[in-house]
Structures are given as C-alpha cells and as structure tokens.
C-alpha cells in the first residue's frame, strides 16, 4: 500500500450476517451488507440513493451487538453495521421472518390486488416480495381503503393512491434529488396519501424517475399506461440522444416498437436517474412524419418516392464534382459524424463542414479545436469541486443530469455556485447560485473549482476567451457542455472546418498526412473550412453549388437559413419530414437511435454506446448511406458499418501534435440599446425530437417575458398584462413576469409555444422594442 | 384576491419569531384561518411564497393537523369529546343529541353558518368529563341539555361563557388569531382553576388543618 | 392515609395565581435568582442528584437528559417544552399552565441556563386557546420584568422564549415529531440516532422536556435536593400530579409523593361513584396497559407500575366502574390511535386501520373466538415493529383487556351484541339529566 492509498483507505467494520462474516466500509447499512452476501432482505422504502426512511418496516431483522440482543427486530435499512454485530435475517431468525410476514400482510390489506390490470404487474417489488415474504393467504376480512383513481398529478404522471404503500420514495426523490417538492405526503394516518397542491401539478423535469422507483403501480406514466406487459418487452441498452449529459438508458421494445425508456444505472454519470425528455420523448421514432423511403424531386418539381439506387444516383449526380458544403445537426452519433467528416474531405474534397447548427462564432471554433478537444473534466470533478461556475449555461434546462449532480452537492455540502447569467432561473435558485454579469466578478477559484461553459457562450464575443484565461490563471477545471448529444462527438470526428478527425488541425501538414495514410488517399484539402454561417452565405452568393444536410433545422441557425437553401441543390439525410426535406432535391431516410448502434460522446468526451433494438431494412445509418453515396460518386470512404467506423476512429487515435492556437478575443461592448433580448431554451419546448409528445409537452414551462420591476413600471404593465417584443422582422407577445433582471434586458424562452425567437425576431439576442400590448 | 398590506405585515412579524422561517408555517396557517376561516388557496399560496416553499409543502403540513380546516367551519365550532372516557361519561349521548338537535353530523355546518360539529379526541380535561370545546374553549361537565342550550345560545349570538376561559365566547376566527400569537388581551379573564383542579389542594389544606 | 404535597398547585386557589404578582407573592422567581448564581454545570448536577424524572410518560431522568448536551461546542442549543398533552386521560399540564404558567417559565429559564440555550420554545397543543392566552401573557410579563430577554437579572444570560401552538396531532407529543412540527414539517417521528441532544431542533443540540418536569425544577432549586428526595420512593423521587378521572365521586388533580396507591387516591377522591364498583383503570393514560381492582395497592411509581405489568405514564388514572363495556372502551381508544397515527410506518398505519375494523365487529358481537386469536396475533405483529411507540400504545389496551376481560369479549360474541347499557355509565344518568 502506498502512502497515498493508506490515507484514502476506508475504515471497515466486520459483522456476522446469517452466520457469515462480512467486512464492509463503516457506515454501510445492514441491508446492503446483506446484499453483498447475496442475502436479499425485502424492502420498499429503502433506496440506496435516497436518505433512509425506515418507514415501510419490511426489512426488519434480528440484531445483537457484542452479545446484547435488541429486544425487538430492527429496520436493516436504517441501521449501520457495527463491529461485533450479529444479524439474523428472515433466513435464520423466525422472529424476523414473522415480523416481515406481518408487515407484508399489513401492506396488502389495503392494496387492491389488481395486478392483472396493473402496469407494474410482472416487475413489481410488492408482487415479488409478497410471494417471497408474505403469507399464503390473507386474514383480512374487512373493508379496503379506496380512493378515486387514477388522478393526474401532471399530464404525464398518474397516481393510483390505493396501490400506494406510502414508502415515500417518490416524495424523497422529488425533494432530495430533484429539488422539486411538488409531490408530498398529505393527510395523516390511514388517510395519508401522496398528492400535489391542487393548483400546481407535478411539473418537475425529473418526474419520470418517481414512476421508475415506485415499488408498486401507484405512479404510472400516461404514455405507457396499459400499453404492455413487462414480460413481452425486449430491453436494449441505449444512450440518450437528447442532450450531452450522457445518460445510460434502457429502451424497452415490443415487436419493433419502442414502448418506454428507463434510466439506466451508471454511478459515474446519471446514477439511476434521467430527465423526462430522455424518458418520454421518443414518439418521433414512430411518428407519421417519419421518412420511410428515399425521395427525389422530379421534373414536375415535386418529391417522389424513389428506389435507393435511383435516389443515390440522383444525389451523386448533384454533388459529384461540385462545390458542396456539409452541415450536420446535433443528433449525429460519433460514428455518423465521422462519416460526414470523411465524406466531406474524401468524396467532396472540402473542409466546408460544420456541426454547429446554431448560433456560433469563429472564437468558438478556435476554442473548440484548441481547448475543448483536450478537456477531461468529469462528474467526479463536480463531486470534488469547491466552487462551480456556470458560464452561459443553465444546467437544468440544457444538461439536466449535470444539474442533478451539482444540486446534490449544493444540498449535501453547500457547494458554492456562481452563474454568469442575466436572470435567476428556477434552476439557479435551486442551486442557490450567485449571479454575476461579468466573469471578472469571479473570485476564489482554485484548482478544485470547475467552470462549466454552455454553447451559448459563442453568442457573446470574448466570453470564451475570458473563461479560458481565468481557467489558465487559476488552474480551475474547464468543461464545455453543449446542449445536444452529438456535438462533442462531431468535434472529435472533425465535422468542423478547422479539424480533421482525432483533433487534427486541417492546416497542419503532418496531421493531414496522418489522416491521408489512414484513409488511403493522396490528398486532403488544407484550407480552413467555412463555418455554418459562411456556408449558408456561400450558397447565397453561389460560391457553393450544393449542400448536404444531416439532421439540421435551419430555424436553429438563423431566420434566413432556410431561404439560403432554396436555390441550391440540397441533399437531406433525415429521420422525419421537415422544412428541409420539403425543399430538398434528394431526401434519404436514416435510422434513428434504436434502429442502429453507435455512440455519443457526452460532454466529458466519453463514449456512450448503444445497441440496435429494432431491425428495419429500409432504415440505414447516415454513415452507411454516405458510404454508398461516396461509392456512387467514385470516391469511396469505405465505411460500410458502424463497426468499421468505430474501428477506424479507434485506429486513427487522437492527435498529439501541435494544437490549433487560440487567440483571445475582445469582449463585446456593452449594449446601448433600450432593450436587448436575451434567451435560452427550456428543456421541454418545441424541439423536433419532442414532437408528438403531448403528455410531455403538458409539463413544459409556459413562456413569459421576464422584465424588471422598473421596466414594468416604465411600460405600465403588471403580471396581469402582456408585452409585445418586436424587431423589423416580426414580434412575439407574451404575458409579463416581473423578475430580478437588468432594466435594459428582456428574457424569453428561445423555442417555446408562443415564443420562437429566431423565426419571429430573427435572432436569439439583440436589440428589440418592447411595449405594452 | 390577495391579503391586505396589514395582514401581510402580521405574517412577517410571525415569521420573525423564529430562527428559521419555515417554523412559522403553523402559526401562519392559524392566522390564515383567523382571516378566511379555513385554509384557503390564497392562504397556501401566500405562505408558500413567504416561506419560499412549494405550495405542495404547505399543503402537506396543513392537511396533517386536525385543526386546520380545508372547508369553512361555523362561527362556533363545537367539538364533542368522544374519546373513551368522555364518551362513556356521556360524550356519545351528547353527540347524538346535538346532532339530532341541529340536524347535522360531524364535520358539517348548519345552513346559517353558525355551528359546525366535530368529534374531538381527548382534550386534556378528563377530570371535567364530559367535555365540549367550542372554538377550543373549555365547556366542562356537559350534559345533552347544557350543550343544547350552548348551541342555541351561540346561534342566537349569545353563547354562555366557557367554564374555564374568557368572560365571553369568541368566534372561531378570533380564537384562531390567538393561536397565531395575536393577543386579544383576555388572559386575565375567567377562573384561574376549575373545581377539579383544586380538589387535591383543598383536601391537602383540610388535611393540614386537621 | 397518605399525605398530599401541593407544590405546583399550592396556590391555585388564589384567583391571581396565574399572574406574575401572584407567583412572586409566594417566592416565585427566587429560584431563578438563586440558580443564576450557580454555574450551569452545578444546576445540571443538582437536578441530576435530585432524581427528578421526566413527567411526560417515559420517566427518563431529567438531569441526565440535560447532561447529554455537548458543552462548548459553539452551537446554538435549544430547550423545547413539550406541552402537547394529548394522551387520553392526561389532564395535568393544561390546568397547571392555566393556573400557574410562571412556574414553567421559571423552570425554562433555569433549564436553558443550565444547558446553555439562548432560545427556548413551548410547544403547546393548539386546542386550548385559554391556556395559550395565559402562557402568552406570562411570557410577556416575564419579558417586561427582565426575566426573559437580554441579561436576565443582570446575570449576563440571554434567553428568548417563543410560544408555539400545535394544531391537533397527538403524535407531536413524541419528541422528534414535535421537533419536526416545530420546524414546520409534518409531525412525523425522526430516525434516531441522531438523538435530539446531538441534533434536535434545527439540527442543534436540544432538550425536550415535559411541562411538569420543567415546572418542578424551581422547587428543587429553592427547597434543595434533600427536600425533594424526602418525597417519593427509592428510584422515583419527589412529588407529582396524579389526575383522577372517570367514575369517581370527585375527579381532579392530586399532588402527592410518587408511590401513592390508587386505593389511597380513591379514598381522597371519595371513592368510585356511589353505588358502583371499580372495574378497570389506566395508571398513566390509554397507552398504559389497564389495571383492575386487583391492582389497587400497586405503588404508583415507575418501578411499581412496571412490576405489575403496565407503565406509570402520565399518571392519568382513568377510572371505569362496572357499568362500562370494556370492549367499547378499548374500541374507542383504538379508534383514537388510528386517527392519530401519523401514517409514516406500515404496522401503525395499516395495523390500527385493521384493528378498528376487528374491534368494531367484536363490539357488535360479530365473529368467533378465533378472531380474538387473530387480534392478538396482529397486536404481536404491530407491537415493537413500528417506527415509534404510538402503535405500542394502540395495542396495549387490547392486549390488557383481553388478559382481564376475555370473557366479556366472548359474551359479546355469544350474545351477538353489547350486553351493556351505555346510558348507565354516563354522568348524567345518576344526576337524572
């Protein structure tokens, strides 16, 4: 043992459980020490990630310490193991066995035993443990407690109170883990029940976890209720495509149809939780808007279904030998992004590729290549942080599992959080975050501090530079957390104009040689590629002839992006019909997450692999299609499969040569406009992967315009009024919310019902007019 | 409709009594009942806002305690002790007769809004059984006839005075304010002790004089 | 005949006994002045030595409880008085607070000084408005007299005292539930450890004491340990309030040395009501297993009552004569526990729900003897299995009544109903009302 190990060595205690000696870290609860021996003590309220409750009393065991027996059985979920402890569970103690049987009988007297129609049937801890720990027959001859059932505690969660065993897992989760105590135990005694305040539904971004940890069928998800029996489902391991948090998920499929998704168990990332978007936004997979067959625009100007060979030929004809730009969206896996990256360089001979289908800057491009590609900050750094700084990053809205991790430490140990934001969001209130307007206000940063930068930092000149400089001077750890799942992988794959795969600068000859030899090509373009906005400009002035788009919504980029696509040759690889497929010349349908395998690189840069769950011969991965298309063009990229791409990425490895340099940009001058619009997205909004999820949408935050009290007074409005926010392009009208925000700012959600700022106002931030409606 | 500025200021003064604001939730609920007569939606929402809690958290507390009412009660809320000792000593008979007399049952209010009934648990006055509480004032050693007079008097605006309490019975709302800590200045009214409380003392004195 | 020892109740017959003037007239607050001249540790030692045990039901030595508070820890300490008196039959603290609130306040100041608390609380049950008025006025007067607030009696000791009304929940008499309630949560018992002495109110070291326990402290300071120890029995020292209620000629409060018997108390109270005989009684509230006439000579101290198979509890002696149906009495108690179960743990919440249904059937004469066996087995599955002691209290009357009156249960079953006339046991039956 090295001295360092000695310092971190865990103090252990040794006890005997059912006659077997067990040594565990001090503080380990009996119920978990028993698990290590393979002894399963029945339980309901116990959950390893929640504070002990000792409420259900199902886990009673006999305990003695140093020969002194407790006079009555003890709850093994609340008592830590001690040296000299002798524990007898139901396996070796008739008293414990009778105690457990008695508790189980009590739990069942008021349970409806409607297992045949209950969603939990077949995977129900109550059902299972009633079989293992209960009496063969009930002695209850009385009247069962009944409640009106079910009640909607939100549009996506239903509550059957009579099934509830009042274990308080859901209420503890909501309070302790999510910080959203919107469901509580109400009433008292035999009438105690889970409930909400009647006017405030259970609208927590994490509400689905309560359904998952409910040990009975009391909480069910509206979308899954009465849809399946657990034993008819096939589960596949999956990763979440909705953001860069990196959640491990399980997807349950019946006859090639995804019926539900559950949080997987990854202690380093999402622990056992996920957000409601990750859990409940998957109807896009089976949407009627899915593109199922290739489409080619005919001479009549309309799109027609075409065979794959026809469509590939049409696409190749439009791209071959042309000056083509490539834009990819945030849904791409690492492997698919690699396919686009290679396709651009090899098949199209260009570096004009950019994955940033959103507001972006050259400062950001340099920052990504020079800094982000090296970042190795992880969740564990948040666990150890002495301070967390959020830079243009709203974790609850933009990376909800990162939020849970920060919140855990705020709650547990008062972790200090500072947020560079114009407005205190609900999330930053939960984090008790100190708001700053300028990074120069930061203080006390150490090498233990963590600076988390959001993708919106690209929208203000100088922010990334300042954050980087602060990290450099203080030694604080830096992380860049994009909103979308695919961006970090796309960066690694070189789906950006200044990098080749593996973080190789395009301008670096030896880096290019590296890639050339791996790809078996003689030449690679060396000119810095165009950015997303430059590509769109180039289409406009005809310095580009065509564009290849993979999963891009032009409205995420700018108001006129779609217009730029109108008079050019467009090849669109898409899951569903969209504004792009409507104007494309060739549409090639692609497989979505459960229909293919692959991986996302989460914000840490760590691969989150997922398996294919559904076989659909018509749906191919982007990668496979690009490989066929490259063959047709005559410049093969030789990536017939995900496996092939993964192997090639692996063998190519990461660049260890000189990085792109990052030169500091000056801060943007302070705005002198009367009103400046600021915005970010809500987690649940009009995002394309949430389409059709009406139950989920029902819990989305409603859009309001946030202004200061002084501004409200100036405009003569109260929270009962609405304001009109306008630019030359258009306007949005929203009810007012008076908040602490600078007098010259107005905040609105970026892409919510009634508040879609890019199409309506033309930008995500800038000068606007604000007036009382 | 929101509470008045004065009412909100009283709420702030209640919160100021405690080292941590959440502790004020119970007196605030009593205070809401002193204004609205029961725990209203505006009461829950205002308390939640004042204490920086979710409305569900306030609901969780208000529904736990029997004294907080989710529906309006009468101006005179009559609680008949039907716990074992009082019930046996006559509480059951009193309850039955007052129900008959008023035409209402427990947890109901007369149509004129004057009287509501509750079967209450032991109210710490067993030596005065059977006990009836009106607006949480003691009416000791009751009979069906005395309670009939009591509720009739209350309906006519002239209830008899509590046995051990102020000289005049106050309304439900007025007494709720007392429980919120808003003094009504009546502490000095009424007896210092009832007869049963003095029993041992008087015997001791007679022992001493023997 | 045993001698009564009115201490707390000594001046309740004076019409201003509840005022600060009335209290001071008989040496009130002299003990405080005396205590403030000692060190806190000396006070704790004195109370320990006196043998004062908690008067709220559990009988834990008060001085020991105080000594568990870590000293010099630079944390806020709290003294919280449990005035939530709600155990059926218990009726001593409310008359004490109505007639003599200053004895409690004086005890609180002394106790707070001893445990180094600068903020104390009285958690008073909410269903006693006039008691609230009296205590609130007493606190105001104590502040005005410089007995609370900053630099009490020039000693440099500061104390704030806050009166807090409960809102109708028996469980808040359980000390950790009381603390949760006082912190603004649902009054459900907390997991222990940590115990309140380490992490109580606001997670700070806290002592929770019953009203009578704290109110007894000034008399010990004033009169000395020997005076106190001269009363009572070997392990249960001092005087206490015994509350007689029910079918006795004269119900009321009796302050007597610990260890008096019911026979003696009944004699003082004029016996069981005229023309009737004692059937069963509780020594200390409904949670304490019932006794019968065979227990008339049990010494009413912790040891004596425990040895006879029950608990001293709150010394709430509820007397029932032969007109009383024990099944009806027990049913009503079980209904109480069902109503007051906080709902947190399964055996209490579900068990009391079930017990009420069975007891209702039994009272109505429905069922068989096998149901009595089932009933006892359910009690066995509840007792000692629940989160706190409330459910133990719920089964105590069932088990003890079946022990002494099993035949009466069977009589209900044989007869298909209750053999008793409920009117016969009312107070006004004999009064002719």
How would you describe the overall organization of this protein?
The complex is a heterotrimer of chains A (773), B (210) and C (433). Chain A is of the alpha/beta class and 773 residues long. Chain A has five domains: 3-108, Ubiquitin-like (UB roll), CATH 3.10.20; 142-286, Alpha-Beta Plaits, CATH 3.30.70.20; 295-355 and 488-652, Rossmann fold, CATH 3.40.50; 365-484, Dimethylsulfoxide Reductase, domain 2 (3-Layer(aba) Sandwich), CATH 3.40.228; 676-772, Beta Barrel (Barwin-like endoglucanases), CATH 2.40.40.20. Chain A has 25 helices and 39 strands. In chain A, a hairpin with a 6-residue loop joins strand 9 (184-186) and strand 10 (193-195). In chain A, helix 8 (308-319) packs across helix 21 and helix 9 (334-347) runs parallel beside helix 21 (622-633). The radius of gyration of chain A is 28 Å and the shape is globular. Chain B is an alpha+beta fold. Chain B has a four-stranded mixed β-sheet. The model of chain B has no long low-confidence stretch (mean pLDDT 97). Chain C has 433 residues and is α/β, with parallel strands linked by helices. In chain C, 44% of the residues lie in helices and 12% in strands. Chain C has helices at 20-25, 30-36, 40-50, 62-67, 93-99, 101-115, 129-144, 175-182, 196-199, 211-223, 225-229, 262-268, 302-307, 326-340, 346-363, 369-382, 390-415, 427-431, and strands at 78-83, 119-124, 160-165, 206-210, 239-246, 252-257, 278-282, 291-292, 316-321. A five-stranded mixed β-sheet of chain C has the order 6-5-9-7-8, with helices on one face. Chain C has a four-stranded parallel β-sheet with strand order 3-2-1-4, sandwiched between helices. In chain C, helix 5 (93-99) crosses helix 7 (129-144), helix 15 (346-363) packs antiparallel against helix 16 (369-382) and helix 15 packs parallel to helix 17. Classes of the chains: A alpha/beta (773), B alpha+beta (210), C alpha/beta (433). At the B-C interface, helix 2, helix 5, helix 7 and helix 8 of B face helix 5, helix 7, strand 3, strand 5 and strand 6 of C.
């Amino acid at each position: 043992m090295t001295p360092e190990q000695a310092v971190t060595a865990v103090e252990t205690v040794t006890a005997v459980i059912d006659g077997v000696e067990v040594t565990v870290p001090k503080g380990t609860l009996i119920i978990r020490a028993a698990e290590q021996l393979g002894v399963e003590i029945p339980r309901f309220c116990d959950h390893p990630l929640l504070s002990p409750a000792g409420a259900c009393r199902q886990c009673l065991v006999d305990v003695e310490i140093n020969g002194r027996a407790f006079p009555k059985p003890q709850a093994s979920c609340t008592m830590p193991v001690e040296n000299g402890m002798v524990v007898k569970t139901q396996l070796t103690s008739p008293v414990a066995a009778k105690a457990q049987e008695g508790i189980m009988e009590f739990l069942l007297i008021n349970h409806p035993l409607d297992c045949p129609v209950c969603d939990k049937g077949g995977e129900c801890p109550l059902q299972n443990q009633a079989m293992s720990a209960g009496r063969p027959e009930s002695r209850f001859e009385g009247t069962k407690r009944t409640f009106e059932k079910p009640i909607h505690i939100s549009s996506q969660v239903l509550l059957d109170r009579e099934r509830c065993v009042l274990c308080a897992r859901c209420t503890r989760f909501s309070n302790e883990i999510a910080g959203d105590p919107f469901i509580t135990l109400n009433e008292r005694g035999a009438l105690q029940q889970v409930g909400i305040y009647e006017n405030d539904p259970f609208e927590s971004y994490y509400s689905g976890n309560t359904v998952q940890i409910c040990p009975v069928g009391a909480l069910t998800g509206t979308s899954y209720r009465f849809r399946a029996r657990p034993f008819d489902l096939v589960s596949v391991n999956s990763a979440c495509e909705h953001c860069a948090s990196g959640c491990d998920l399980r997807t349950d499929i019946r006859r090639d149809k995804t019926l539900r998704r559950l949080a997987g168990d990854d202690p380093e990332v999402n622990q056992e939780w996920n957000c409601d978007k990750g859990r409940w936004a998957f109807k896009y997979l089976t949407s009627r808007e899915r593109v199922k067959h290739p489409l080619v625009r005919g001479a009549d100007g309309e799109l027609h279904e075409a065979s794959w060979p026809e469509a590939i030929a049409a696409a190749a004809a439009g791209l071959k030998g042309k000056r083509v730009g490539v834009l990819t969206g945030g849904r791409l896996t690492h492997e698919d992004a690699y396919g686009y990256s290679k396709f651009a360089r090899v098949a199209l001979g260009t570096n004009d590729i950019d994955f940033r289908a959103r507001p972006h800057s050259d400062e950001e491009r340099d920052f990504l290549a020079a800094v982000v590609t090296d970042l190795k900050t992880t969740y564990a750094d948040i666990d150890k942080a002495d301070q967390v700084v959020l830079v243009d990053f709203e974790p609850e809205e933009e990376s909800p599992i990162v939020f849970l991790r920060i919140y855990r430490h705020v709650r547990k140990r008062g972790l200090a959080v500072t947020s560079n934001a114009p407005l205190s969001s609900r999330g930053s209130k939960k984090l008790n975050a100190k708001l700053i307007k300028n990074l120069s206000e930061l203080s006390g940063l150490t090498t233990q501090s963590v600076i988390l930068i959001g993708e919106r930092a690209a929208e203000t000149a100088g922010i990334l530079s300042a954050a980087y400089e602060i990290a450099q001077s203080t030694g604080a750890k830096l992380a860049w957390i994009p909103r979308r799942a695919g961006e970090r992988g796309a960066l690694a794959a070189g789906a950006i104009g200044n990098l080749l795969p593996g973080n190789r600068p395009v301008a670096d000859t030896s880096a290019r040689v590296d890639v050339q030899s791996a790809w078996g090509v003689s030449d690679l373009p060396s000119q810095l590629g165009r950015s997303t906005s430059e590509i769109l400009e180039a289409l406009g002035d005809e310095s580009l002839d065509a564009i290849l788009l993979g999963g891009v919504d032009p409205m995420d980029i700018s108001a006129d992006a779609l217009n730029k696509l109108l008079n050019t040759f467009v090849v669109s690889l898409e899951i569903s019909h969209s504004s792009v497929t409507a104007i494309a010349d060739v549409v090639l349908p692609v497989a979505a997450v459960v229909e293919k395998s692959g991986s996302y690189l989460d914000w840490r840069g760590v691969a989150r692999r997922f398996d294919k769950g559904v076989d659909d011969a018509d749906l191919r991965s982007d990668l496979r299609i690009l490989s066929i298309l490259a063959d047709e063009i005559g410049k093969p990229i030789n990536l017939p499969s995900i496996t092939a791409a993964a192997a090639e990425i692996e063998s190519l490895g990461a660049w260890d040569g000189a990085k792109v340099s990052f030169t500091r940009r000056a801060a943007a001058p302070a705005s002198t406009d009367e009103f400046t619009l600021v915005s970010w997205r809500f987690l649940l909004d009009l995002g394309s992967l949430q389409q059709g999820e009406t139950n989920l949408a029902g819990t989305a935050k409603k859009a309001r315009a946030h202004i200061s009290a002084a501004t409200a007074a100036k405009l003569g409005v109260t929270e009962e009024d609405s304001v009109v926010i306008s630019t030359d392009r258009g306007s949005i009208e929203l009810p007012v919310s008076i908040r602490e925000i600078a007098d010259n700012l107005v905040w609105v959600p970026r892409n919510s019902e009634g508040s879609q700022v890019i199409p309506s106002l033309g930008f995500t931030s800038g000068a606007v007019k604000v007036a009382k409606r | 409709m929101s509470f008045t500025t004065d009412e909100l200021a009283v709420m702030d003064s209640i919160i100021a009594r405690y080292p941590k604001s959440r502790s004020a939730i119970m007196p605030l609920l009593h205070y809401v009942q002193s204004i609205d007569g029961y725990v209203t939606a505006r009461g829950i929402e205002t308390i939640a806002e004042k204490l920086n809690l979710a409305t569900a958290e306030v609901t969780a507390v208000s529904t736990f305690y029997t004294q907080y009412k989710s529906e309006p009660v009468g101006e005179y809320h009559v609680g008949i002790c039907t716990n074992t000792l009082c019930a046996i000593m006559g509480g059951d008979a009193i309850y039955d007769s007052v129900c008959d007399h008023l035409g209402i049952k427990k947890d109901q209010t007369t149509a004129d809004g004057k009287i509501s009934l509750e079967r209450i648990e032991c109210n710490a006055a067993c030596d005065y059984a059977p006990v009836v509480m009106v607006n949480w004032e003691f009416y000791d050693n009751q009979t069906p006839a005395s309670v009939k007079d009591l509720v009739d008097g209350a309906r006519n605006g002239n209830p008899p005075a509590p046995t051990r309490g102020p000289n005049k019975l106050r309304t439900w709302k007025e007494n709720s304010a007392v429980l919120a800590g808003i003094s009504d200045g009546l502490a000095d009214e009424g007896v210092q002790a009832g007869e049963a409380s003095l029993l041992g003392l008087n015997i001791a004195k007679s022992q001493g004089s023997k | 005949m045993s001698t009564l020892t009115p201490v707390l109740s000594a001046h309740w017959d004076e019409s201003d006994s509840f005022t600060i003037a009335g209290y001071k007239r008989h040496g009130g607050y002299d003990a405080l002045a005396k205590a403030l001249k000692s060190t806190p540790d000396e006070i704790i030692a004195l109370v320990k030595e006196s043998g004062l045990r908690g008067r709220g039901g559990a009988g834990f030595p008060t001085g020991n409880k105080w000594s568990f508070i870590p000293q010099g820890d630079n944390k806020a300490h709290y003294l919280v008085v449990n005035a939530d008196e709600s155990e059926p039959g218990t009726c001593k603290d409310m008359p004490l607070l109505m007639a003599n609130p200053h004895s409690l306040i004086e005890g609180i100041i002394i106790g707070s000084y001893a445990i180094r608390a600068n903020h104390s609380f009285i958690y008073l049950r909410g269903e006693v408005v006039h008691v609230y008025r009296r205590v609130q006025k007493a606190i105001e007067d104590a502040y005005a007299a410089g007995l609370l607030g900053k630099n009490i009696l020039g000693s440099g000791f500061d104390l704030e005292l806050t009166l807090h009304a409960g809102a109708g929940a028996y469980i808040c008499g359980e000390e950790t539930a009381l603390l949760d309630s006082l912190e603004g949560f649902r009054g459900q018992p907390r997991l222990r450890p940590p115990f309140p002495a380490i992490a109580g109110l606001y997670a700070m070291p806290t002592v929770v004491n019953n009203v009578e326990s704290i109110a007894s402290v000034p008399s010990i300071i004033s009169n000395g340990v020997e005076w106190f120890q001269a009363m009572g029995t070997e392990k249960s020292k001092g005087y206490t309030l015994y509350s007689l209620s029910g079918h006795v000629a004269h119900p009321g409060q009796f302050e007597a040395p610990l260890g008096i018997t019911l026979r003696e108390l009944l004699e003082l109270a004029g016996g069981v009501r005229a023309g009737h005989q004692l059937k069963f009684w509780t020594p200390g509230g409904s949670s304490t297993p019932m006794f019968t006439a065979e227990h008339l000579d049990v010494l009413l101290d912790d040891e004596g009552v425990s040895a006879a198979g029950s608990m001293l509890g709150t010394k709430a002696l509820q007397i029932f004569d032969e007109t009383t149906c024990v099944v009806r009495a027990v049913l009503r108690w079980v209904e109480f526990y069902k109503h007051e179960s906080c709902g947190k743990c399964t055996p209490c919440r579900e068990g009391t729900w079930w017990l009420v249904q069975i007891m209702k059937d039994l009272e109505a004469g429905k069922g068989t003897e096998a149901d009595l066996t089932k009933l006892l087995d359910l009690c066995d599955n509840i007792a000692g299995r629940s989160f706190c002691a409330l459910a133990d209290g719920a089964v105590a009357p069932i088990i003890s009544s079946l022990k002494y009156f099993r035949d009466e249960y069977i009589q209900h079953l044989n007869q298909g109903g209750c053999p008793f006339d409920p009117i016969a046991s009312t107070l006004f039956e004999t009064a002719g009302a």
